[in-house]
Amino acid sequence: MARHKRNIPEINAGSMADIAFLLLVFFLVTTQMDTDKGLRVRLPPKLDENQPPPDTKQHDRDVLRVLVNANDQLLVEDKLMRIEELTEFTKRHLTNEGRLPNFAESSEKAIVSLQNDRGTTYGRYVQVYNELKRAYNEVREEYSRAKFNKSYEALSVTDKNAVDDKYPIKISEAEPVDYGEGNN
Description:
The protein has about 180 residues and is of the alpha/beta class. The protein has a domain at about 60-175. It has four helices and five strands; from the N terminus they run αβββαβααβ.
């Protein structure tokens, strides 16, 4: 009995490169890339090296001290505070206009000093920073509606500048230090 060799049919691979290229292009076009989002912070202008730094004396009442310790506890003016209370407390500081002695003399002079412990988690830092920014945004929105009868976003550039001048965002971030575990 004689054996016959069978011919195995070949697969035409000539268009495989074209198909692979089309799939690659398809996935590149349809895939969304995650982009890192950070905190938008405007740095102060660079000072001339030949000039001494400006004198920045502030009254103690104009500075709201916010501290986040190594246990992620929030201390405002050396008192424990829940994160949910920070926005309203900051708004009270910004809009005081000299009425209460513990808060800022005027909105233009109001400063928020944020300091973190080296053990503070990044997530807690972002939470606190977001609450401070929310306070500024809400104060600006309320002032826009009261003065111009419009939302802040609907204002002209000139009117926005007037609101920004009334409530300038002044968040001073001090160098992180080690306060130790459990210090209040």
